[in-house]
Amino acid sequence: MKTRILRALLSVFVPLAAGITASLAASSALAGEVQVAVAANFTAPVQAIAADFEKDTGNKVVASFGATGQFYAQIKNGAPFEIFLAADDSTPAKLETEGATVPGSRFTYATGALALWSAKDGYVDDKGEVLKKNAFNHIAIANPKAAPYGLAGYQTLDKLGLTAELKPKVVEGQNISQTQQFVATGNAELGFVALSQIYKNGKITSGSAWIVPADLHEPIKQDAVILSKGKDNPVAKQFIEYLKGPKAAAVIKSYGYQL
């Protein structure tokens, strides 16, 4: 009797378990991923967006972070990136004219803001007068040839008429992340960084900062584009569409970007 009951139970549960296993395997096989080159200023936002994307779609974003100019060189040398989230609009446009992108895929995903920041509370005033006082030893700025936020920093100094006076005190970061680290570790008392690095949900997260008025530098329009290597990857198009959606927009705005 017990043997017959056991056999009956096995006849039900073994196929059921096999079906569940097969379903999970199929689900895993269907999950895809996309390789994305991301400008360093957009690190925190894209990490949050990628987590939401994976949760909502089951597909994964594999992100690499660095300077826009450096990524351009890597892409031209065959790096396996399928999407490029740049810190400017000119580099993706250049790749587009060179035939290295999927036609029609480029769009501006965010407009960035520049901030003068110090890790010390109260060090930077809300009008940037600390620059004119010139009572510091070092100011950090990203390499303007590789990082658009570095270019915006130099443009700000030019507009204020302070370039010649302050240039001897500049320490250059290879990208905006290294620039922020110079300030965070005290190697520079202050520096120009992306607002998104020090801002969340309407407030500065640490230290003190001056949000640089937009008329002191060229607009920091940040473009996204699907690269040629991503043209046959449906996850690339899916992530670009997700980046245009309301959930991603809310994350982007929370870090101080304009859409």
TrEMBL record:
Molybdate binds at residues 68, 176. Residues 1-31 form the signal peptide. GO terms for biological process: molybdate ion transport. InterPro entries: AvModA-like_subst-bd, ModA, ModA/WtpA. One of its GO terms (molecular function) is molybdate ion binding. Pfam families: SBP_bac_11 (PF13531). Keywords: Metal-binding, Molybdenum, Signal. SUPFAM superfamilies: Periplasmic binding protein-like II (SSF53850). Belongs to the bacterial solute-binding protein ModA family. The complex is composed of two ATP-binding proteins (ModC), two transmembrane proteins (ModB) and a solute-binding protein (ModA). This is Molybdenum ABC transporter, periplasmic molybdate-binding protein. It comes from Caballeronia arvi.
